[in-house]
């Protein structure tokens, strides 16, 4: 059958696919719009498969909090180029994924991709976008955090996002303190909130390195463990959030800064996601 320009334009508006792709899909399906839509989605799947090994070092981080401010949600949507990351459709898809994550509370990325969004799933919408732009697109991170007060922060360029969960606020306004700490996390990339949260494998590795360094410096074996423990404490001070020097006032640790804002205020946990 003859495919008119109006048909092509209609399918293009329905799918957002390119004009030539729409014309070809309608031609191959004899003008059947539903079949043409399926064909375009299949094309997206082929593109997705063919680009599965491509690096997605660009993209954007999207964050939001619940109405009561006690839960934060963060997703990272990755792509191959900065040009696509700034694309309106890419940004709209990221916002939609975040909205569905906040509304449906999926347990992981797999459940997130299976969520319905209109007449398709999130995963199908990603495949559809891949087919249109010809780049690999993927959700690389999905994080949720609950606390007395969750504060969010996105670094310039939307390539880095932070959720920080505060406890002990007792209803006080701690938004600014939360932003300060979130910026600290973005800048200093701590490995844990406090030394008690550092994985035992990391502690063992740091102790082993400290011992080797002490022996290499010719220190007596009977004090090697003590020297290694001192180096471990230095590691905790530099790499655990509450023990780090506060970037806005190095005379205070982050823990002491929070206590100065409101006695007993502290960090329960945090999430930090970076793209690239």
Radius of gyration, CA atoms, in whole angstroms: 25 Å
CATH superfamily of the domain at 54-146: Elongation factor Ts, dimerisation domain
Text of the CATH class of the domain at 54-146 = Alpha Beta
- The assigned structural class equals alpha+beta
Q: Which fold name fills CATH's third level, the topology of the domain at 54-146?
A: Tetrahydropterin Synthase, Chain A
Task: Report the count of strand segments.
Answer: 10
- Overall pLDDT confidence: 94
Give the overall shape, derived from the CA principal axes: elongated
Number of helices: 11
Give the strand order, joined by hyphens, for the main sheet.
1-2-5
The end-to-end span amounts to: 48 Å
Low-confidence stretches at least 5 residues in length (pLDDT < 50)? Answer: none
**What is the H/E string?**
HHHEEHHHEEHEEEHHHEEHE
Largest sheet: 3 strands, antiparallel
Could you provide a short overview of the structure?
By secondary structure, this protein is α+β, with helices and mostly antiparallel strands. The protein has 11 helices and 10 strands. Helix 1 packs across helix 2 (19-28) and helix 2 crosses helix 3 (33-50).
Q: Can you characterise this structure?
A:
By secondary structure, the chain is an alpha+beta fold. Among the domains are: 46 residues, Helicase, Ruva Protein, domain 3; 93 residues, Elongation factor Ts, dimerisation domain (Tetrahydropterin Synthase, Chain A), CATH 3.30.479. 48% of the residues lie in helices and 22% in strands. The protein has eleven helices and ten strands. It has a three-stranded antiparallel β-sheet. A three-stranded antiparallel β-sheet has the order 6-7-10. Strands 3-4 form a two-stranded antiparallel sheet. Helix 1 packs across helix 2. The radius of gyration is 25 Å and the shape is elongated.
